[in-house]
């Protein structure tokens, strides 16, 4: 496994493998791997000949009040875990490499980012799309693999790739979960014991919504009332948003008469957690 820190070196390696006819797969990450990241790598390993993982905590998707400096980092641990699942390259740049002095260019996707996290974190998606398009130009993948825990991010990247005619297949994988159902996240280490117990209200509320849907309920206000009341009944948590949106547009809908996702963002203490469920799909814990 190669550790590559230079953009020029990464591009040269990618060009070499493309000339050989190799199919390149990229799993973009911010590091501090958990089993969900490793699952994405295992899926990626099956999709092509060369598997690249990027590790970069991207400052442009954090607001000044957010946890950029505190975000967990452990490169040596990540390197060992990545090597164990068969990663060929770790692209591990620093910010001087990614955003050199005088950098001015950003990429934005408008409509699908205007709701949910686009309201709560208005800086976030422009940072995500900008760094993703940079990574796509640097690593030059044929395929990229994302988790769908942040469903809006997944939809946004797919929209960007489609709109800009990028020759990249975007694969989305279902959310990986802890044994108790909590969605895996690098930020879960922030949770205190009592906060973690209340954080399980996210997955349990998704299961409530799933059962209502399976019984024939399609009115989103009725489903959301049940979801919000359940989460609000727990201590240490407060809802940022709980909305049901069309998966194609990420806009709120009054009835589930098309493919729809229930998206949650909930603060557990000082930790912001997200989760979601696409109606009609399985939700196993």
Walk me through the structure.
- The protein has 285 residues and is of the alpha/beta class.
- The protein is built from ten helices and nine strands.
- It has helices spanning 7-19, 35-45, 75-84, 95-98, 117-120, 124-139, 151-163, 193-199, 201-214, 220-232, and strands spanning 2-4, 24-29, 50-55, 89-91, 143-147, 169-173, 237-246, 260-268, 271-278.
- α2 links the parallel β2 (24-29) and β3 (50-55).
- The chain is globular.
- The model has no long low-confidence stretch (mean pLDDT 97).
Summary?
The chain has helices spanning 7-19, 35-45, 75-84, 95-98, 117-120, 124-139, 151-163, 193-199, 201-214, 220-232; strands at 2-4, 24-29, 50-55, 89-91, 143-147, 169-173, 237-246, 260-268, 271-278. It has 285 residues and is of the alpha/beta class. The longest helix has 16 residues, at 124-139.
List keywords for this structure.
285 residues; alpha/beta; Rossmann fold; Pantoate--beta-alanine Ligase, Chain: A,domain 2; 2 domains; 6-stranded parallel beta sheet; 3-stranded antiparallel beta sheet; 10 helices; 9 strands; 37% helix
Major sheet description: 6 strands, parallel
Tally the helices.
10
CATH topology term of the largest domain: Rossmann fold
CATH superfamily of the largest domain: HUPs
The Rg value, from CA coordinates, equals 19 Å
- State the CATH class of the largest domain: Alpha Beta
Report the β-strand fraction as a percent range: 15-25%
Average pLDDT score: 97
For the biggest β-sheet, the strand order reads 1-4-3-2-5-6
Question: What's the helix-strand series?
Answer: EHEHEHEHHHEHEHHHEEE
What share of residues is helical?
25-40%
Structural class: alpha/beta
Number of domains: 2
Question: How many β-strands, per DSSP?
Answer: 9
Give the overall form: globular
Low-pLDDT residue intervals, each spanning 5 or more residues: none
């Amino acid at each position: 496994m190669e550790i590559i820190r230079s953009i020029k070196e990464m591009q040269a390696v990618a060009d070499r493998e493309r000339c050989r006819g190799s199919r390149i797969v990229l799993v973009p990450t911010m590091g501090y791997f958990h089993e969900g990241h490793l699952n994405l790598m295992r899926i990626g390993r099956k999709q092509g000949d060369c598997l690249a993982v990027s590790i970069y905590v991207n400052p442009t998707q954090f607001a000044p009040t957010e946890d950029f400096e505190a975000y967990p980092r452990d490169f040596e641990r990540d390197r060992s875990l990545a090597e164990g699942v068969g990663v060929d390259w770790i692209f591990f740049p620093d910010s001087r490499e990614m955003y050199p002095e005088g950098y001015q260019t950003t990429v934005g996707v408008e409509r699908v980012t205007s709701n949910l996290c686009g309201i709560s974190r208005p800086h976030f998606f422009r940072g995500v799309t900008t760094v993703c398009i940079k990574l796509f130009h640097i690593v030059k993948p044929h395929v990229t693999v994302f988790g769908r825990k942040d469903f809006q991010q997944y939809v946004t990247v797919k929209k960007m790739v489609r709109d800009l005619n990028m020759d990249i297949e975007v694969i989305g994988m279902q959310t990986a979960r802890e044994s108790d159902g909590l969605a895996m996240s690098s930020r879960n280490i922030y949770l205190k014991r009592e906060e973690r117990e209340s954080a399980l209200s996210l997955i349990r509320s998704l299961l409530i919504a799933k059962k209502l849907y399976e019984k024939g309920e399609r009115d989103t206000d009725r489903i959301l009332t049940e979801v919000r009341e359940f989460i609000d009944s727990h201590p240490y948590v407060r809802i940022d948003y709980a909305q049901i949106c069309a998966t194609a547009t990420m806009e709120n809908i009054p009835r589930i008469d098309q493919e729809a996702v229930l998206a949650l963002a909930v603060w557990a203490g000082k930790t912001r957690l997200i989760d979601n469920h696409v109606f009609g799909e399985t939700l196993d814990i």
